[in-house]
Amino acid sequence: MFRYYECEKCGKKYFPRKIRCYCGSMSFKEVVVDKAIGSISTYTVILVPPKGFTPPIYIGIAEYDGMKILGRYVGDPERLKVGIKVELHNDDGTTTFSPIE
């Protein structure tokens, strides 16, 4: 499941939610999709992560429906490449990407 926000005035999509849209509106609706498929546009590997995380951590930006979304890649590191298709999830409060099998 993936949640994002859409301006009710102009239709621009955001994740995370903004306080005010570029059009000036402050009215947004929450959109929930069961399956959000995007593609990795860039990524990095964190070898010395913050306390509480086990290295390495794979962080990327996925493009989905015109949005660029920062999240953690949780699949096989050998498959992580720019352009691969991933499913986006944020139903537990964190944003993760898993590769499409």
Automatic annotation (TrEMBL):
It comes from the Archaea. InterPro entries: NA-bd_OB-fold (IPR012340), Thioester_dehydratase-like (IPR052513). This is DUF35 domain-containing protein.
